Amino acid sequence: MNPEYEAHERLCKSIGDMAKDNEALKQHVTELENRLRALWDKLEGERKFYEDRIKRLEEAGDALYEGWIGYGFTKDKHLAAWRIAKEDKL
């Protein structure tokens, strides 16, 4: 067999193998991107859940605070602690 022909055949096979590897890598990258997107969406949903939970807890704390003021507890150390804790959450 002609050595140039054999070299050409090996080169074509090598190019074909690289093309297959490239496609496999592209598929793997796509799979990783999809998994990352799914994880991001999950974390975004959890973030929204906890932000809503914090907001509702703050509203409940504010309602308790306002209710206690009506009973004359305006200078109570527990009420001051609530305000400090609420402000320190940031």
Explain this structure.
- The protein has 90 residues and is mainly α.
- The chain contains 2 helices and no strands.
List its salient traits.
90 residues, mainly alpha, 89% helix
Strand and helix map with partners:
Elements: H1 3-70, H2 77-88
Provide a concise account of the structure shown.
The protein has 90 residues and is mainly alpha-helical. The chain has helices spanning 3-70, 77-88.
Structural category: mainly alpha
Q: Tell me the number of structural domains.
A: 1
Cα radius of gyration in angstroms: 32 Å
Cα-to-Cα separation, first versus last residue: 77 Å
- The total of beta strands comes to 0
- Overall pLDDT metric: 81
The number of helical segments is 2
Report on the biggest sheet.
none
Strand share of the residues?
under 5%
- List low-confidence stretches: none
Label the overall shape.
Answer: rod-shaped
Tell me the series of helices and strands, N- to C-terminal. Answer: HH
Helical amount: over 70%
